[in-house]
Amino acid sequence: MLTPTYTGTPASSHTLSGTLPEPLLSSRSRGWNGIVVELHRFCDTDAVVHMRDHVLGVHIAGTVNLLQRRNGRTGVKLVRPGDTTITPMGEPKRWQHTGETMVILLRLAPAFVQSIAGEECAADPARFEIRDNLGVRDTQLEEIGRRLLAGLEPEGAASRIYAESLTTHLAIHLLRHYCTASIPLEKPGAKLSHHKLLRAIEYIDDNLREDLSLTDIAEALAMSPGHFAHAFRQTTGLPPHRYVLERRIERAKSLLHETDLPITEIAHLIGCASHSHFSVMFHRATGQTPRDFRSNA
């Protein structure tokens, strides 16, 4: 089961009445699987929106009295920074509030969530429906939202495999805690065979210059992304995105120490979009800039 690449649809095509602002930041150009991440500033909102995705709103600034109306039901709640609203795909919803709030919108593709449900338990994924929630305080949802938002910053430049890992974790959390039929809390501790582990490592090492995703690596092993990620962590003790990061750092160290290649070229060879992205990533991992590491080698 392969996870579809999801780029979402423009916010304007969701709006049936009223207006919604364009996002301040968006992941639409990144090609992240299963999710679009947006940062919005909403002020005096009154709009009816067609819900084509599962939408989570992680409120990070501003306190507003939020009214939501859907399917003849109306709810009102004071929403503060740290609260998250959850709106599943389905009938249009009306949002109303006065005042200003900053919100991270996480637009999850329903097909992605269903694929995760199918991987996590042997049952018809269509029976797993996300529940509407006007506002909940959930530190995991807030942390995932903030980490995905940080990945949109130029110096953050989150890799596809990192964003996809967070998106998978988000889908599993929703299915476990905000769903009509909960998936099991724990999965059997299946591990990769020796052959598949070597194949995964070989594929990663051969493609470090690419913006790898879970789907890329799992497809090379004829596995689903979710099952691969779980089995890889059970086998190595590391999630795939962390292993890929460590391999990139080790490759960079080797190239800095053993070659005279320009740092910009080394950045390209290990899959960084720019010199600055490479420098930030390398410094976070080693405490040194690439230039200082080369000088001290």
What keyword list fits this structure?
single chain, 297 residues, alpha+beta, Jelly Rolls, Arc Repressor Mutant, subunit A, 2 domains, 9-stranded antiparallel sheet, globular, disordered N terminus
CATH class of the largest domain: Mainly Beta
Encode the helix/strand succession as letters. Answer: HEEEEEEEEHEHHHHHHHHH
Radius of gyration over alpha carbons? 21 Å
Content of β-strand: 15-25%
**For the residues shown, what is the average pLDDT?**
87
Rounded to the nearest angstrom, the distance between the terminal CA atoms is 45 Å
> Superfamily at the CATH H level of the largest domain?
Jelly Rolls
Number of strands: 9
- Global morphology: globular
Write the layout of secondary structure elements.
Elements: H1 11-14, E1 15-17, E2 25-26, E3 35-51, E4 54-61, E5 64-70, E6 73-79, E7 83-87, E8 90-108, H2 110-120, E9 133-137, H3 139-150, H4 160-177, H5 194-206, H6 214-220, H7 225-236, H8 240-258, H9 263-269, H10 275-286, H11 290-296
Antiparallel strand pairs: 1-3, 2-3, 3-8, 4-7, 4-8, 5-6, 5-8, 7-9
Please provide a written account of the structure:
The protein is built from eleven helices and nine strands. Strand 5 (64-70) and strand 6 (73-79) form a beta hairpin. The chain folds into two domains: 11-177, Sandwich (Jelly Rolls), CATH 2.60.120.10; 194-296, Orthogonal Bundle (Arc Repressor Mutant, subunit A). Helices cover 41% and strands 25% of the residues. The model is unreliable at 1-13 (pLDDT under 50). Strands 1, 2, 3, 4, 5, 6, 7, 8 and 9 form a nine-stranded antiparallel β-sheet that branches. The chain has helices at 11-14, 110-120, 139-150, 160-177, 194-206, 214-220, 225-236, 240-258, 263-269, 275-286, 290-296, and strands spanning 15-17, 25-26, 35-51, 54-61, 64-70, 73-79, 83-87, 90-108, 133-137. With 297 residues, the chain is an alpha+beta fold.
